[in-house]
Amino acid sequence: MSLNEAFDAFQQKVDADPTQVSEARERRETFKSALGGDADVVEVWGSGSLRRSTHIGPKIHDLDLVVVFDAAEYPDWGEPGDSAGQALDVLGGKVNKLLGATNGSFEKLVRLASPRSHAVKCFIDLPGDADGFTVDAMPALQHEGALLIPEKTSRKWVSADPLYLVNEVAKRNSEWDYFLRMVRVLKAWRRRADVNGKVKSLVMEVLALHHLPSGYARPEALRQFFTAAATAVGNGPVEDPAGLCGEIQPDLDRVGLRDSLLNAADLADQACDAAEQGYTDDAKRLWREVFGGDFPAPKGKPSSGPALIAPAVAPRPIKDAPQG
Questions:
Q1: Residue 196, beta-bridge partner list
Q2: pTM above the 0.85 mark?
Q3: Tell me: the pLDDT tens digits for 110-129?
Q4: How far is it, in rounded angstroms, from Cα 77 to Cα 81?
Q5: 101, 127, 269, 301: least CB-packed within 10 angstroms?
């Protein structure tokens, strides 16, 4: 197996099952058709990783929708106060009426519609089911070319532009048709980062948007990404690319993520050097150190070529990582 074939095989492990993708898209269309038929709704469209095609497997557990309401029908919406919670209640009521598992008039699909801070979480399966599927439906108003969305916890409406990232990701993929695939690979890698807590997948996607170069072979693009992303994370927070919502993950352990990116950069450097010298199996072993056991292992024994030195990163009990 060549190195390219190894990356192809790893990609198959990362990507979601096409059947799962189709089912998620069918559910999205069901919600769009049901909610979009009401007179007070301007439009319904998908957002999130499914819309951007940056979702990863093995299963798809959720999708995101934006439900844009007619501001003329709700003149108090958009103002601070109770209207943020009211918008979520209105949307939750629509979901129950149209898609409730017991009495849904459009389709009997949703077991529970639970308003949260920004969206109504719609449980297709029983809450708590490890393999359950949910839909996050977010009410919104059109505002100055973007959106106003409710924030129930603060009783305010905040600006957001989910379509900005949708369009920017599509643009990057038109420049390099490996872009979406590499975003998925990096989202899978984040699970190996030695951090306190978790790294949100959106953090990796935005880092890839800014720091994953186009037009290179996959190994070289990844090598450059890990180095550039480590520098970026060390220099400051990862923020909403549309410039509206601020820091994506305020509780992110940036020190841990930076060190993990640097560790991956060192391994990627060694892997690319090994491949350039013809030591393909050694390169595979090093990429396996980066990505874990789903990356195909070489069948042969280690060569007497370049030393395989995996830089060790000892666990760090970080208590107060800088958050910007």
A1: none
A2: yes
A3: 999 999 999 999 999 988 88
A4: 9
A5: 301
